[in-house]
Design goal:
Elements: E1 2-3, H1 10-25, E2 36-42, E3 47-53, E4 58-62, E5 74-78, H2 80-88, E6 91-92, E7 95-96, H3 101-111, E8 115-118, H4 124-134
Parallel strand pairs: 1-4, 2-5
Antiparallel strand pairs: 2-3, 3-4, 5-8, 6-7
Length: 137
């Protein structure tokens, strides 16, 4: 786990620490580290971070400016509260568990587009793996 920027923004720092703690707590999560690029945007805080996964490392960076042309597999855009709910949602197969209230709440937020996940249909495995890496439950 490393940071690409000398001074990571608050979201990049939070994501990096959460990913690092989750992998340290459960080393089996290392198998989820397949090459992918995920961008997370906390729309209400106007801050974004980029997570680059590979078998060897996790690199977290402040998201590049809108004009930068870089590959992104999945983009998650939501308010800070919605992002926290997403990270805390109970999962089944890497997706929010519809049998649990918290899981249904997150699925509702995705359905009403307060949580937007671009690339979810093209890269469902990336979404599932990232959810399991990020999940605190």
């Amino acid at each position: 786990m490393r940071y690409a920027d000398a001074e990571p923004n608050g979201l990049a720092d939070l994501l990096g620490r959460l990913l690092e703690a989750n992998v340290e707590q459960d080393p089996a999560r290392r198998r989820l580290l397949a090459p992918a690029v995920i961008e997370v945007d906390a729309s209400d805080a106007e801050v974004a971070a980029r997570v680059e996964l590979s078998r060897e490392a996790v690199v977290v960076a402040n998201a590049p400016s809108a004009g930068a042309a870089r590959r992104v597999d999945v983009r998650i855009r939501a308010g800070a509260g919605d992002l926290l709910a997403l990270a805390g949602a109970p999962l089944v197969a890497g997706l929010p568990n519809p049998l649990r209230r918290d899981g249904r709440d997150v699925l509702r937020r995705i359905a009403n587009r307060s949580v937007r996940i671009s690339g979810m249909l093209r890269h469902p495995i990336v979404v599932s793996r990232f959810s399991r890496l990020l999940s605190v439950s």
